[in-house]
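Methods — Computational structure assignment.
A single polypeptide chain was analysed. Its primary sequence is given first, followed by the predicted tertiary structure written as structure tokens.
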Amino acid sequence: MAVFEYRALNGKGKAVSGIIDAESASAAKSKLRQQQIFPTSLNKIESQPGAGATRSLSFFSEFSLFSKVGSSELALITRQLSTLLSAGFPLVKSVSTLVPQTKSKTLKRVLSKIKDAIEEGNSFAKALALYPNVFSPIFINMVNAGESSGTLEIVLERLADFTENREDSKKKIQASLAYPVLMALIGFGVLIILLTYVVPGIVAIFSDMNQTLPLPTIILISVSTFFKSWWWAVVLAPILCMVLIFSLKKTDKGGFFIDRLLISLPVTGELLKKIIAARFTRTLGSLLENGVPMLTALNITKSIAGNRVFHELISKACDAVEQGGELGEILGQSKFFPYLASQMIKIGETSGEIEKMLEKTADLFEKDVQTAITAATSLIEPLIILAMGVVVGCIIMAICLPIFEINQLIQ
């Protein structure tokens, strides 16, 4: 069955668009007319499973946990699908019902193809696996476990909760950092304007005097001259540094060095370790709770660590667990994995409730991270204001000192 993208007018003359599946173009037009929708254009969607359907997805959503489609949209679709299945709808009918309700054209096309794959006899997990750029291994394996155990609607609801919680945590962190970053950027911009345009006009008065200027004024004139001539280099340097870091991070050795450096920093390093530990324990706990075997779960979670050092650590832990070792003991031997997290995992393994202990560990570390970020941002704001005040005060002092000396000479 083919999938067609249409533009049309409804019974009230309003322009509408969407996607419909039918045997042919004429069948699609007939199907639309039955719904009181009159097509003005109809195009067949040509795509290869798992390839072209997802290549045009946005680069900026690559930090999403599950997909190149927005996390919030995927969570909504997952929850709606869970609701329909719980209400007794067949899987194919449930997926078909969601297609016209989806805003993303990419996701519409993918859902249509998934429905076709299920109708051809594929399992839901296998149909999802055709689109690895949309559905992550975590999503696919949890769905597979849900299908195997007959609890697909429950697994989908947990997936929706999991995605929404991760998205909420990410938004809280972004919101906490937004204001300090904005203040720093504005302060930096104001400083450049002062040194490039305002200060030169004032200090030019002192340059014509045959008088020895105070050291602060000489330094201010030198800095102002530098900024006036090289302001573009000052602005461009951070950008070039970021490009260099990102380019270096793409290489194996460079990326490993940068990742190791980041988690070795005194304050931010500890915070980053907690963030990664929370992400690891939350994901591993959800996978184990939904019936995914430990080794499979570990292989999945190492890909979402976002840090090459942790990726290597989890890979070693996976090999050791395969040989009969204990996960908590192996992780506890690394200085990069938080000690408290490894001890809580040990307790979970000993008590036989590792899934619950992983969830508790994730809750604990997520709260610690949020508290630390809130405290840091509340401290950063006054520090930025203080730094700007010191800089502006030094500029004023450098300008006023020669004026005071001139007044003393006149007197």
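Note: Residues 1-46 form one domain.
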